[in-house]
Amino acid sequence: MTPAVLEPPALEEQPRVEPHEASTRPEPPRYLARFDAEARVLHVVIMVTFLGLSATGLPLLFSDAAWGRALAALFGGFHGAGLVHRAMGATLLAAVAWHVGRVSWRAFARGERGIFWGPTSMVPQPRDVGDLFRQMRWFLGLGPRPRFEHFTYWEKFDYMAVLWGTAIMGAAGLILWFPVAASRVLPGWLFNVALFVHGAEATLAIVFIFVVHFFNGHLRPGKFPMDLVIFTGRIPEDALRHERTAEYERLCAAGAIDALTVPPPSESSIVGGRVIGAGGLAIGLALFALIVYAVVR
Amino acid sequence: MWTRLCCSCAAVAWLLAGAAAAAQSSSKPPSKSPSNDDCLACHEETVKGFAASTHGPLQCVDCHADLASVKEFPHAEKLSKVACGSCHDAVAGKYHDSIHAWAAEKAGLVGAPRCADCHGKHDIRPRTDVSSRVYRDRIPETCGGCHAGIRDQYATSVHAAALKRHDARAPVCIDCHTTHAIQRADTDAWRLSVTAECGTCHAGVVDSFRRTFHGKVTALGFTRVAACADCHGAHGILPASNPASMVSKARLVETCGRCHPGANDRFVQYDPHPNPGDYRRSAVLWWANRFYWVLIPGCFGFFGLHSALWYWRSRREGAR
Fold first, then answer.
1. pLDDT at B74
2. By the number of CB atoms within 10 A of the CB, which of A20, A94, B192, B278 ranks highest?
C-alpha cells in the first residue's frame, strides 16, 4: 500500500493510447471517478488487517487442527501471533472508528444529507429490496438485469457487515484483551459470551469474505479474476453503464459525467492493485482451504 | 571367618547336590553354574521371599549373571548391578529416559531410585498382588518413601479419599506421572500432556476447558495460561464444595488473581468450563449459540445460493 499506488495520477497526465486501439477507435475508453483515495486506503487497511487477524486468530479457533501450531509458528508461536492479532485489531478498530467519525462529520457538520439516504447512500433502502427480487428474477431468467444505483444491495450488505462485525468483534476482543479492567463494570460470565461470539462472528466474517465477497466482488464471471476499481478508484464508463445503469442515467441526466471524468488508471496503480488484490485473494482462499480441511477431517 | 565357613558349606553343598540338583531346576541347568540351592546355603536370610516372588522360578544367576561362570568360592563381595533390562527391555527403555534415571546415572544422586527401590529386590511381586510395593493402593506410600512432602499433600486430597474407599478410578502418582517414563513436572511438554491424564476420568470437564481461551492456547503448546493444576492444585486437589479448595467460592478471587492481578468478585463469575448447550449454566451463552447457529447457516445458505445462481446465469449469458 504505497502512496504511489493509491494516489491518482496527476490530472495533466495524458491517457495512453495503444497503437492498434488508436487505429480502430480514435477515442480511448473514458474513465469515471468512483472511489476517492480515502475509500481506497480504507479498503486496503481493512483488507490487510482482516487477513492478518484471520491468520493469527484461526490457530486459536482451530487449536485442535494439525495446522494450528504451524500457522501460529509463522508469527513466532502463539505469543507472537497474539501480539500481531492485537496490533491488527487495534488498527482495524481505529480505521473503522475514523471512518465512522468522517461519515458523521460529513453528514452533520458538512450537511451531506445524501450520505444516509438517497441514491449514493450505503444505507439499505426500499429500492434494495426491489433490486434483490429483480436480481433473483434475472437469475432465473424471468426478467432483465436490475438497474443498480451507486451501491448494490450486496455491496451494502458487505459494508453493513463490516460495521456490525467490527463493533461486535471489537467489543468482544477488547473484553478478552482487558478482562480485569472489563470486570470493573461487567460480570465475568460475559467473558465466556465474548469468547464464543468472537469465534462465531469470526467464522461468519472469514467465510463470508473469503467466499461470498470474493465471488461477488472479484471472482464471478465478468469480474474474474478481480475487479480493480476498488484499487484504482476509476471505473470505465462502459462498465458503469452496464453494471449501474440507474446511476449512469442519473449522472447523464444531471450532466455530471464530464465532471467525474478522470484519466485512465496509471500502469503502476493497475499493477499495484493486481499485486495487492491477488495477494489478498490467495491468502484468503488458502485460509479458507485450511478451515475446510479442519472441518471436513 | 563367616565367609570362610559359608564357603565351605557351599562347597559341600555343591559337591552333594551334584548333577541331580542341577537337573531339577526348571530353567537351563548349566552344569557348571551354581544352583539356587548353592546360593541359599549362604544367602538364605538375604533372599527371603524369593521363592514366593514373581521371579521364584528363575535361577539366581539369571539376574546375578556375573556369578554364572564363577568357579571359585567365596565369590567376590562386590557384584555387578543386576540388569533388569536384559529381560524387561521395553520398561528399561522408558526408565532410561526418565528423570529418575537421569538423576541416578547422570547426576549421580545417591537417593535416585533404580528398579529395586520401587519394586524391591528378591521379594518382587506382581503389581496385582496386594502385598506388592507397586500394588495400586500402595503406590503413594512407595513414592512417598522419597517424596514425603508430596505424599502428605496427596493424603489430604479428594483423590486420596477415593483411594481409601478402594475406588478403582482413584488416581495415584503413576496415573499422572506415569510409572517408568517419569518426567520433570515443570517442563512445558509435561504440563501440557497432563491435561489429557485428567481427561481420562474428567472427559467432559476437559472438553469444556478446551472451549475456553485457556484450553485453546494450551492446545497450541503455550503454557503461560492456566491448565488444570494451575486452578485446582496438583496433589492436594479438593472439591469446590470444600472451603479450603483453591476453587471454592471463598478462594476464587485469590486463585484467579494469581494470574489476573486485580481480579474481583465480578471477574470470578467467569465460567472456566462453559457449555453453550447447557441453558441453566448460562442462558446468555445458550442464546448466543442459538443465534449464531441460525445466522451462520442462514447467511451462507442464502449467499451460497445467490452466488450459485449468479454463476449459472452469467454462464448462460456469456459472462456479462
1. 84
2. B192
